[in-house]
Amino acid sequence: MDTHVSDTTTPAGAGEGPAGPVTDPAGHAACVVTLGAGGPAGGHRGELGGKGTRLAELSAAGLPVPPAFCLTTALFDAYLRETGIAAEAAGADPRTLRERILGTRMPAAIADAVLDAYGSMGRPRVAVRSSGLREDSAAQSFAGQHDTVLDVCGDEDVLDAVLRCWASLWSDRATVYRDRDAPDALAVVVQEMIHTDVSGVMFTVDPVNPRPHRLVVEACQGLGEGLVSGQVSSDFFVVDDEKLEVVEERVRYKVTKCAPLEPGRIGMTKVDAAARSVPCLTHDQLRELGALAVRIRDLYGSEQDIEWGVRDGVFHLFQTRPITTRPAAPAAPSGALSPYVAPQPEPVLNGTLWSRMDIGEIFVGLMTPLGLSFARYYQRNVHTDCAGALGVRDTGEADLHMGFYQGHVYLNISYSSYLLAQCLPTRDQRHFTSRFVSEEVDLADYENPFGTFPGGMEDLLSTVHWLQHTAREMTQMKSRSQQMVDARLYEFDRARGLDLTRMSRRELHGELHRDLAWFHDMHIGYMPYYINAFAFYGLLTELCARWLGSDGVGLQNRVKTDMSSLRTVESAKEVWSVAQAAKNDPAVLRIIKDEPLEDIARLLREDPAGQRFWDRHMEPFLRANGTRGHQEMEITHPRWIDDPSYIFQMIRRYVADGFSIDDILRRSSGWSDDSREVLGRLPMPKRQVLDTVISLYALCSELRETTRMSMITSIWLVRNVVYEVGRRLVADGVLHSPDEIAHLDFEDVRRYLAGDEDAVRVFDRARIDAARRLHEHNKRLPEPPLTFVGVHDITASVRPAADGARLEGLAASPGRIVGRARIVEDLVWQADEFEAGEILVTGYTDASWTPLFAIAGGVVTDIGSMLSHSSIVAREFHVPSVVNTKDATQRINTGDLIVVDGDAGTVEVVESADTDPQGPPGAAGTPAGATTD
Length: 933
Hints:
Blueprint: E1 5-6, H1 25-30, E2 32-34, H2 49-60, E3 68-71, H3 73-83, H4 85-89, H5 94-102, H6 108-120, E4 126-132, E5 148-152, H7 155-167, H8 172-177, E6 186-192, E7 198-203, E8 214-221, H9 225-228, E9 235-240, E10 246-250, E11 256-262, E12 265-270, H10 283-300, E13 304-311, E14 314-322, H11 333-337, H12 346-351, E15 353-355, H13 369-388, H14 398-401, E16 402-405, E17 408-412, H15 413-420, H16 430-433, H17 457-497, H18 505-548, H19 555-558, H20 567-583, H21 586-594, H22 597-606, H23 608-625, H24 645-657, H25 661-669, H26 675-679, H27 684-731, H28 746-754, H29 759-762, H30 765-780, E18 787-789, E19 806-808, E20 810-813, E21 816-823, H31 827-830, E22 839-842, H32 850-853, E23 858-861, H33 869-876, E24 881-883, H34 888-891, E25 897-901, E26 906-911, E27 929-932
Parallel strand pairs: 1-5, 21-22, 22-23, 23-24
Antiparallel strand pairs: 2-3, 3-6, 4-5, 4-6, 7-8, 7-13, 8-9, 9-10, 11-12, 13-14, 15-17, 15-18, 16-17, 19-26, 20-24, 21-25, 21-27, 25-26
Helix pairs in contact: 5-7, 13-18, 17-18, 17-27, 18-27, 20-23, 20-24, 20-25, 22-23
């Protein structure tokens, strides 16, 4: 599928230029070929381009191709001659030629030939697609290099779309792709536009897995352009090419789709709620699609990449091309199954404990190639110094601290606990390892393959070093926190005042170097608060269990630590304040409630009342919270200041629900706490010890949250520079679209800015495509475990039983609630759907989700731990929560009535959404949630 999609058009006569003599009207008509008529290519083989030729062949073979005609390369040549552009082409600047075509009216005889063919089709809505001579060949695909204009209707708009396709022969990206070779002529296909219900791609051989007899299908709701751009979720199927049976199936929750928003405008919209969690295709449809794929492969005698769509139950084929890359040979067992990036001795390889629990939450979840390479930079340049900030004297080898497995980042717990044994609180490695282990792993007989840290003089030196460092830390922790807060505001304001677009390449390199230095310092400054809060929580848990017995079970989660003022929780209150300001101004509220999300910020600034609201309320809010975002180390994710859509969604939600600030404050500070009564039973010395530990936990937690904003702001600064580089690469044609920034390597960005190499050579197209394919492969795979020892075969993971009605996880926040479930996968798109009191069910959360907790009845996540974001914030808002259920998002449906028991760690579906006699959630008479103590 072409990745460049235009949803606006320009009048065909815009600009005047020489029309040239009309020489041969009859000859022009002969250069317009109805596809499928007169054989695979009629008398014009070689003039239809790759796409046109393939469609003609599919049509002639009786395969279901929508009606289409092709403007041959001969017609394009005639256009160039008659407008005088051909005489200018030799040695001309490509951009000048493109502008000439877009500004020159199509000669009348050529336009008549095009419109006669369009009239013969009945003048339907059409897709106008470029068809290059080398396009879709076995050597080069040219996919996305030339333009496509979708959903066009009317004579003038069709002519304009044809000109745009012709002009794209000299687009920056096409020029770069052919490496400045002379351009070939370009054909154009005009095909009836099918507004598909479901679209996708099918590969007659798995492009990333060498196993035979696998037809791979990816399917999404709506038009296929959303799948190609990576903006929508898709289902994944594997069909046996001999029996045509479905042998593998992964159905994802689908929130958005690409579809017509209005005539002539294609964009993103929501998938109907009833279609989100069901497969895009039935097994019967997959068998039918598989049979079509086998026919096409037999027709060409080679493996094919096929684009298809379904409308009203009928399949349509839009394109087929040879698969230009074959699956790589299987990697060595250790490389495929271990997070280590370098070979290791067998005992280390098979005995290492890996975990992705609580690693700052900024690494949680699948990461893009750019995100992974940035994490690798962090590992090599920052992480060991973070260990030093904890008082570790010997910080070890950077490559051993972290690992990477199927697109996820893991912490090497074995090596980390080995090094942390230099510090007194973690001299016993179990104090550290037990905090990073989920219930999948039993550490009863575990032995660290790295052994214990050397004793004797090394231990003595390390202990002295740790004591001196800790003494300094205790005296400086508050002042350093304030310095980090002040520095964050300075750096934020400075960044807002910069215009990166006006910087030279060398200046941009200097800016990135500066930002990375600050990134380094902020992570080192943050790490002690994070680890010390972790340590005091663990100590509190251990002392409660030891001194209070059964009375102390879960006490650490009930203790009132006065952390309702944490920066993360405070952001929910501040969103409420912004919502109140909007509610009090009808003009502002109308814009926020009624306008498309992507237009709200612009429309507010264009409106006098909106501008006042922006200056008085949005700007202070964004200055305080704007660098928050989802999965912050994944620098492809925009922050609130880059895209405030989520904030507008929450404003809509808070206004609609009528929440008062008292509602939020009660949830974050009004909990009835029995911990003081329990602690009162202890002897005074033990009670004083626990009070001290509670105070230190509260202090470190507060400082952690305060300085976290500095840490994540440092990531945002780096992101700004990377995306400015990406913008320039798109403008120069090195990248097809901004979506491809996600497939870059961070080291290539640094190398490009640091030198004077040509961008085409630094950002190699083959490596970008390989990174994209690997990322798509990782997206198909089951979620890997939070922790495992040695190696893990992810292909052995099995899909949970569909009829499971009871789930077990970690009891993260006490209380019991009965309510309707709401699956949330895309925070921005779904925040306005969430009803107050519903149970939030999602994969995991981070700081950007906090405002939703203020109105949630309960929280259930697939992954998480006692100190993950979802657990901490749920406790602060006193929302019952169960985390680490593994597969709640697959076994619970939106609208299910569920019981969340935050004391027992269980979630039970008591009534399925499709059997609810009172209708869907929100229907009259259906309670949003009911809580029991």
